[in-house]
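Why do we care about 3D structure at all? Because function follows from shape, and shape follows, mostly, from sequence. That is the central idea of this module. The next example makes it concrete: a single protein chain, its amino acid sequence, and then its structure expressed as tokens.
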Amino acid sequence: MKDIKEFIIKAKQNTYAGKNNQAESSRDGSIDYEYCEGDYKYRDSYVGSKYFSGQEIVWVKGKPYWSMNYVGKVFGEPFSGDFLKDALKKCTIETPYRGPALYEDGDYTYLCNVEGNFEWFEGRELIFFKNKQIYELKFHGGILD
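And the structure:
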């Protein structure tokens, strides 16, 4: 299980959060990122901007293995996509879903709460600017069988 979690962290750091590996759109209007290493393949595909929805999938040897769905919205300014990406690059082996439980930089604060485990989980992340909430995302997912 550690190998797949390490791969997910590496994939996240090398796709959306790292501003790398944008892939061909898999659906009308989607923005996709893909990362492959050995037997593992990761794809993040989302639609929307201020209000958005997406899905991350990991395949092992061509078979879907793990998935996470998310939906979010930006409802305040000044939202910083770079701050969000910095937070996402700091996910941990214990919680490789989004970012850490707490990340702060200047006037921005990122919070992420997760219930469950890698096999079956749900969570929510928030961003505040000067203690005013400006962003929210809900996510859930787990192992595929």
